[in-house]
Amino acid sequence: MSTIWGASDVDAAAARSATLRVGPRDIVTPLARERARELGVTIADADTADRPTTAPPVTPPSSGTTDRAQGTRSSATTAGTRRNGSSSPSSSPMALTPDLDSAGSVHSMRPPSPALFRRGAPLPGGLSSGSGVADGGPSRVVVVGAGHVGMIAAMRLADADVVDEVVLVDIDEGRAAGVALDLQHTAPLSDFTTRVRGVGTVEEAGPADYVVITAGRPRQPGMTRADLVSTNAAIVGDLARRVAATSPRAVIVVVTNPLDEMTQHAWTSSEFPSSRVLGMAGVLDTARFQALIALEDGVGRARSVDAVALGSHGEEMVIPLSRATSAGRPLPQVVSQARLDAVVDRARGSGGEVVGLLKTGSAFMAPGMSAARMVLAMIRESDEVMSAAVLADGSYGISDVYLGLPVRLGRRGLREIVTIPLAPEELAALRDAGERIRERLGAMPQAS
Ligand SMILES: NC(=O)c1ccc[n+]([C@@H]2O[C@H](COP(=O)([O-])OP(=O)(O)OC[C@H]3O[C@@H](n4cnc5c(N)ncnc54)[C@H](O)[C@@H]3O)[C@@H](O)[C@H]2O)c1
Ligand SMILES: O=C(O)C[C@H](O)C(=O)O
């Protein structure tokens, strides 16, 4: 039997021994070869005399995800097809070979190669026409809220050219239609074939594979995210129920603030399995930390920083420095503890810093790109470890509350919560974040 080796297998090999051993009939994807060139990983024939003595890749100690609708625990993902209609590598070892060290811990949280995001790359692809989950119709991503975050997310999604349709929905229908038309005009500039529509309701948008909810009020200077709760809970609750009716098999990605509470609210309102309701904040918070620490002397490029932001999207954000590296070197060996602490604080407060500078509205470029990145990771089954707000399932000693945890996503949403070793104080801070979010949920108005 032949095995398909993907870019994430190369990442795992880079973390272990800088050599990827493949069998004579195995297929190494072009992206994996490109990734190997980037990382200096040798692709060697496993049948040669110097056969590796290292253990084969192992399946992670997944705690699985709870599928409430079915009452079962599942980490399955759905096979998909590429945009060109051929079979996707969803059964490839990309899904089975995490970058774990022999202790079963995550060795690297490095984002995948930019090669994974290059248009026209043969593997993995997008969703083919006719693969739309709801009706066998067009593959479709619906972005609810054609405001600042929504339009950036839609732009990235259209530009990626991996779905038939991106539909913007806004109660201000003219805005949705105008932004959509403006975006459609960029098709020759960005060279995409995705159609872009703008409508006033999720019902008009039609059944979707993925729904990104950015609708709601942003905060203004002097406000906390929590100040948005009653206004936005009413919007998100209503939208989640209507999305569930229109797109019963969609994966929902919530962006609206306060993020952790709104994601849990969308889950209960939609009555979807928790694996299909995710929140976007960790990708953004991680990017902010990477970007800001890269401004420090000696750190290098932001993408060479391997780190993850967990916990809440706010005061209880946890950035485990015990796991953070730059080009493979532990960050505390590169940057002084005082500077590290200052950068963590700045990353934690970055949303507020941007609000203060803009004076009206909040950040949207990095947030919109981060939301699109989550959707693209699912469509492309990139298999990267990223932070997302998910329903804690007992991992890290936390249960039944949405908060930022390291995850792998698949076509159908959450594939698994990844357990990474944390220092005792980091674990305590993560658990505290769960408790604080639970308290805020308890205080949330019930009628939304
Ligand atoms: N999770 C994160 O990391 C993150 C990052 C940035 C912003 N946000 C949040 O995202 C939300 C949107 O931010 P923004 O800057 O895009 O705001 P915005 O005001 O620019 O856009 C919001 C849009 O939602 C629309 N809208 C309101 N109610 C609606 C409804 N019921 N149906 C459809 N559309 C509706 C509005 O007409 C508006 O166009 C805010 O709550 C903000 O706090 C979260
Ligand atoms: O800070 C905000 O209110 C918006 C968003 O959550 C952000 O972090 O930029």
Describe the 3D structure.
This is Malate dehydrogenase. Belongs to the LDH/MDH superfamily. LDH family. It holds the Pfam family Ldh_1_C. Keywords: NAD, Oxidoreductase. InterPro entries: L-lactate/malate_DH, Lactate/malate_DH_C, Lactate/malate_DH_N, Lactate_DH/Glyco_Ohase_4_C, NAD(P)-bd_dom_sf. The protein is α/β, with parallel strands linked by helices and 448 residues long. It has 13 helices and 20 strands. The strands form seven sheets. Strands 9-8-7-10-11-12 form a six-stranded parallel beta sheet, with helices on both faces. Strands 13-16-17 form a three-stranded antiparallel beta sheet, with no helix packed on it. A hairpin with a 2-residue loop joins strand 16 and strand 17. Helix 3 packs parallel to helix 12. It is globular, with a radius of gyration of 21 Å. About 17% of the residues have low confidence. Bound molecules: nicotinamide-adenine-dinucleotide and (2S)-2-hydroxybutanedioic acid. The site of (2S)-2-hydroxybutanedioic acid has 12 residues, from helix 11.
